[in-house]
Amino acid sequence: MENAGKNSQTATALRTSAVARYLQLAALFRRRIETGEWPVESRIPTVEELAKECGVANMTIRQALNLLEQEGLIERFRAKGTFVRKRLRRDLWCDVQTDWNGLLLSRTDAKIEVLSIENGVVPSDVPPGIGELAAKYKHLRRRHSREGTAFLLADIYIDQRICAKISKADFTRKTAMRLINDVPDLKVVDARQMLTIGSADPEISDLLGVPFGDPVAFVRRVAVAEDGTFALIANGIYRGDMVRVNIKLLS
What we know:
The protein has 2 domains: 2-84, Winged helix-like DNA-binding domain superfamily/Winged helix DNA-binding domain (Arc Repressor Mutant, subunit A), CATH 1.10.10.10; 94-245, Chorismate lyase (3-Layer(aba) Sandwich). It contains 7 helices and 10 strands. It has helices at residues 2-16, 21-34, 47-54, 58-70, 100-103, 176-181, 202-208, and strands at residues 74-77, 81-84, 94-96, 110-121, 137-146, 149-159, 188-199, 215-225, 230-239, 243-245. It is elongated. The N and C termini lie far apart (51 Å).
């Protein structure tokens, strides 16, 4: 009875989501590998068994398993079945800091790649009640990686008036907050960080190299200058399997 109830819940969740069913199933099967429900070197249920459990066609199961096979998580053998070969990497070496000094630190051995630059941009999505928009901003899309693996995709908007005081080289070596902190004669009177949890869409999946639908952390950081305008608006997307948030409750 317990398995029947579980099967019914799985099938209902698949029907009510707008995401393609094979992508939902691929995410479900990855979690089973990650949690150890399907241990490494174990044989997983057959296509027919999974199709019955999930209430979908055999072809949908095969599409989902194809994704896992491409990722190297499983291996299929004719007449023998499908076996788990490895678990997802969960190496939490990227900390999202929660104080000003921590936000100024660069990640150890991190590489910052500038993907695109636009001048004269006005951000369309700004946090209310904190500051006012300046006339124009420089928009940089950057990708941070370590050991060849991307962990952060960031859209940074910097007040165009202060960009002349930031060297081009700094855009590829300094964190967003460090860029603002090091601008001569710029006084930051307010700074905020907001974090929410979501999932990777196709673009994020491609740029960060994570499976579609995997958890990601959306982190917005803003810095307000003395004149009340946003000197910086930075929207970062961290891959969820390599990030953690440490909050010190007592000093």
